Amino acid sequence: MATNLKSMLITLRIPVIFFSIFVISLFIIALAISSSQQITFSHNFIFTNTTNTFNNTPVKNTPNYSVLNKTNTSLIKNTNNSSITNFNIPTPFSTPTSYTGPIENAFYFLSGLFNKNVISVGISSFGINNIINNNPVGYIINTDQVNGNFDITSMQVSSVETAQGNVISNPYWDSGMQLNARLVFDYGGNPHSYWLQNTVTFSTTTNKFFVCNNIWNTDSNTANINLNPVTGIFSGDNGNLGSYDGVMFYYKCLQPAYYNLPFNGVLGIKIDSIGTGSSATTGIIFQYAINKNGNIDPVDCLLLGNNCNNLNNQKDVIYDTVLLPPGSTNAAIVISPELPSEIVPSSLNFPYSAELEIGGATYSQITAFSSFNAQLGLKYDSNGNENMVNFPSYWTFGVTAESTSNLVSTINAAGQATITTTNTGINPLSGITTSCNLLQLEASNLFLECSG
Fold first, then answer.
1. At the N or C end, where does the chain have fewer CB atoms within 10 A?
2. Residue 188 and residue 186: Cα distance in Å, rounded?
3. Across the strands, what pairs with 198?
C-alpha cells in the first residue's frame, strides 16, 4: 500500500480532506474546561473550515454487512413504505424505559466476521443489561447527544491485516477510534434511520491523526444518502458524498495533524433544532475537543501565541453541521434492544446501539497492537441540557467492521473502560454474566434459551 496520503485514498475507506484551521479566540479559551474535568460541549462554539478534496472516490467505515438483511427499499423519499402510518418515536430525554419484548442479540453480529478471533473493543450500550440468561432485560433510551471521552497513554501498532487475514505491509494509517450511534427520524410520514460516525484515525509510525465523520443510510442494504437541500441532507460545511459497494454515503474529514501521548479528548454527536418557522429543521452536529496532546496543554499553546508544532490543539470544535431533509421530525439518537424492523420496518438488521471503539483504521482492517493503554467513557444527554450521564449498562465490544485481535476492555462500576493489550485473545463476554457460551449466543439474531 502506498505511503503517501493521496494514493492511500484509492484503497482506504477514510478519505482525507485538508482544511485551514481558524484561531480560537481568547474568550473561548477562558471558557474552555480543564482536561481534568468531565467535558461537555457548548453548542455555541461553531467554527467553519475551508476544505479541499482529492479527486478520488473515498471509501469509509461501514457496518459489518456480511450478516445484514438484504432488502431493496429506496431511501430518503421512501415511496415503497408510503402506507406505513403507525410510526412513533418516544420523546427524547425520557428516562430509560424498561423493555421486555423480543431482544436483538448483539452477539449474533460477531458470527458474521471473517476472522472469529477479532472484534472492535471499547465501551458500548446495546440497551441490554449485563445479565444474559433465559430472559434478558433491556431498556430504551432516546437522546439528543452522545459523547465519547478518551485518554490514550500508550499506542503502538505491530501489524495490520485485511478482513480476510492478509497482512498489509507498511500501512500509513494503521488504527482508529470510532464513536458510532443510530439516528431515527420521521420524514414524509415514514420512519428512517441513519448510522452516524465520528472517528479519529491514527498513523502510529508518523504520529499523525485526523478527524472524520460519516453518515450512512441504514433504511436498507441499498440505501443511499442524498446530498440535496430539498429532498436529502445538506451540509453548509463542505461535506461530500462517497461510494462504497455502490452505496452512497456522506463524509467530511479534517486535515491530518500531529499527536503526542498522552492524547486526551472527547468526540461528540448531537441532534439539535436549526432555524425557526418554515425554515426550521434538524441538524446533526459533529464535534470534538483535544484536551491534552503530549505534555503541552492546548490552552497554553494558544495563550502563548504559537501553534505548538501544529498539534491541532482545539477546544469544543463543531466541525460539521448536517441538516436533515426539511420537514423531518421526531429526530433522536436511539439505543434500543428491539429488532430494527420494529423501529424502521425496512431497516437493516443492525443494532440500535451507541459505542466508542478501538480497532483498525479503515476498510474492515484488523489491527494488532504491541502496546496500548487507554481510558474510555461513553455518556448520553439525559435531559436536553447536556446533562451527560452513564448508560444503565455497558458492554465491551461494538459492531463496526474495523477490529482488533489483541485488546481487552475492563469496565469499572463508574462506567470507565480500561483498554489494554492481552495475550489470551479477545473476550466479548467480558463484564457479562451468563450461563450461555459464545457459540450459543451467536446462534440467532434473537436471544434463545440456553444453559451453560
1. C
2. 7
3. 179, 213
| Helix runs in 16-173, H state only | 26-31
What are the residues facing 18 on neighbouring strands?
Answer: 52
Q: For the whole model, what pTM was predicted? A: 0.79
In a domain, 120, yes or no: yes
Which residues constitute the domain of residue 50?
5-441
Scanning 76-210, the segments in alpha helix (DSSP H) are none
357 in Cβ contact with 177 (< 8 Å): yes
Do strands 281-293 and 263-274 pair parallel, antiparallel, or not at all (unpaired)?
antiparallel
Amino acid sitting at position 70: K
pLDDT tens for each residue of 171-209: 999 999 999 999 999 988 888 999 999 999 999 999 999
390 against 434, higher pLDDT: 390
pLDDT over 50 at 32, yes or no: no
- What's the rounded Cα separation, in Å, for the pair 328 and 129? 32
9 vs 77: CA distance, rounded Å: 31
What counts of helices (H) and strands (E) characterise the chain?
A: 5, 26
Query: How many domains does the chain divide into?
Result: 1
Domain-located, residue 149: yes
Pairing of β 257-258 and β 247-253? unpaired
How many Å apart are CA 391 and CA 411, to the nearest integer? 12
Q: Residue 447 falls within a domain, yes or no?
A: no
Q: Distances in Å between the alpha carbon of 217 and those of 73, 165, 348, 417?
A: 11, 28, 9, 30
Q: Residue ranges of the alpha helices (H) in 153-270?
A: none
Q: Rounded distance, CA 41 to CA 290, Å?
A: 12
Residue 13 lies in a domain: yes
The segment with the largest mean pLDDT, out of 35-49, 50-64, 178-192, is 178-192
CA 55 and chain centroid, separation: 26
Q: Taking every pair of C-alpha atoms in the chain, what is the biggest distance, in angstroms?
A: 63
Residue 374 near residue 141, CB atoms below 8 Å: no
β-bridge partners, 421: 407
Q: Bridge-partner residues for 156, per DSSP?
A: 371
User: DSSP string covering 7-23, please?
Assistant: HHTTT-SS---EEEPPP
CA atoms of 74 and 76, how far apart (whole Å): 7
- Return the amino acid letter for 262: P
Distance CA 416, CA 150 (A): 10
